[in-house]
Structure formats: C-alpha cells, structure tokens
Fold this sequence. Notes:
InterPro entries: RHH_5, Ribbon_hlx_hlx. This is CopG-like ribbon-helix-helix domain-containing protein. It comes from uncultured Coleofasciculus sp. It is a single chain. This protein is an alpha+beta fold and 81 residues long. It has a domain at 31-73. The chain is built from two helices and two strands. The protein has a two-stranded antiparallel ribbon. α1 (39-51) crosses α2. The longest helix has 17 residues, at 56-72.
Amino acid sequence: MSCFYLVKLETRKMNMLSQVELLPKGKPKGRRVAAYIPEEIAIELERWADNDTRSLSGLITHLLVKAVEERKEPKKDLGSG
C-alpha cells in the first residue's frame, strides 16, 4: 500500500513542523458537491480553516458532519414541566 506524508504547519510557530500524519494515497471517499456561497462567508471560512490548519474542504466537511449529527439528536421537550 503506497502512502504519503501530509505535513501540517502552524504559522504561529514560525512554520515549525507541528504534526505529521501518514495518510493512505488515493481518492477521498465520499461525494463531491459544488456550492455557491457569499464572498464574505468564503473569506471567513478560509481564515477559520487556516487557523485550524485544515483545508477549506476539510473544514466544510467537518462543519456539515457536525450539523447532521446535531440534527439527528433527539430534541428535548422544553414545554413540559
């Protein structure tokens, strides 16, 4: 199985090596989706991704997975009592 190294760098530490991950080589698993978002939101997401040392795609995937998981959680009944 061929692999490659993904090196994540933190700009706050003057580009010193902060983490190395070994990831399998090949196509990502999942479905590609195109979306149009307002420019201001895109800029904020890019800053967020950079601060988290993630790709923009990785951040958006993380946010979508989290939103779907939260939606699946049973809603608490606030009206009883």
